[in-house]
Every structure is written in C-alpha cells, then in structure tokens.
Amino acid sequence: QVQLVESGGGLVQAGDSLRLSCAASGRTLATYTMGWFRQAPGKERELVGRITWTGFTYYPDFVKGRFTISRDIVKNTMYLHMNSLKPEDTAVYYCAADGEPRRVSGSQYGYWGQGTQVTVSS
After folding, report:
1. Are 73 and 30 in contact (CB under 8 A)?
2. Cβ–Cβ under 8 Å, residues 73 and 24
3. Chain mean position to CA 98
4. Residue 87 DSSP code
5. Least buried of 86, 92, 105, 107, by fewest C-beta within 10 Å?
6. What is the mean pLDDT of each run of 10 residues along the chain (122 residues)?
7. 26 phi and psi, to 5 degrees?
8. Cα gap 17→60, rounded to integer Å
9. Which residue, 88, 94, 40, is CA-closest to 66?
C-alpha cells in the first residue's frame, strides 16, 4: 500500500514562491505515476501537474511556467515548486499516486495524502 504525506503549505503573499513536499512510502516514485492536485473552496479538485514513473511531467495550461514538479528518487519524495503565486492559487494541495504501478496510460489515482493548505494573500 502506498502512503503519502504532504508538507510545506502555509501563508504567503502574491508573487512569492513555495515548495510543497510529498513523502511517499517505499519506492513509490520509481514505480508509480504521481500527481499534484488542489481543491479551492467551492471548486472541484483539479490536477496541478503530473510526473510519470518514468519521469515525464505534464502541467495544465493555468500553471505552466509557474509550477514545476520534481522528484528525489533516493528520498522517495516528490516536490511541487510554485513560483509567482497568485491569490487564486489558494487551495488545499494534495499529492496522489496512481492505483497501479508502471501504468502505461490512463492514470487512475488511488492513493492520496491528507493535503496541505496553501493560502496566497494579495
């Protein structure tokens, strides 16, 4: 079973940078596609970015150029680097892992962390 723990959230000002961490159990990052999601009040949970178990990253348009996902295989930790934060980035951020290892396509996230709050003030 994959276990995930997010950390690094907090209160920052618009324009600031923040790095979130997702500590995963075992060797998860080397075998599972991982994703960062966020959920703002009154909104559906949305994908912020994804890194496949092979290391390929994907970002939706609304964060391209500002957010970057990286991973440390040795530490089995995934990071979300957020730059030029905006108030609309305020949300609870979650890391997730695919429900199956080494999936070729069509990720179905089956493991979730508890979330970490990111609040961006003007």
Report:
1. yes
2. no
3. 13
4. G
5. 105
6. 96 98 94 97 96 95 94 96 97 97 92 98 96
7. 55, -135
8. 19
9. 88
Work out whether the CA dihedral 114, 97, 36, 60 comes out positive or negative. negative
The pLDDT assigned to 105 comes to 86
pLDDT, residue 64, reads: 82
Name the token pair of 7.
């950390």
- Residue 108 near residue 99, CB atoms below 8 Å: yes
CA–CA separation, 8 and 116 (whole Å): 7
Closest CA to 16 of 122, 93, 116: 122
> Please, is 45 exposed, middle or buried when counting C-beta atoms within 10 Å of its C-beta (0-12, 13-18, 19+)?
middle
Pairing of strands 77-82, 67-72: antiparallel
DSSP string covering 17-72, please?
Answer: -EEEEEEESTTHHHHS-EEEEEE-TTS--EEEEEE-TTS-EE--TTTTTTEEEEEE
Longest dimension (CA), the chain: 41
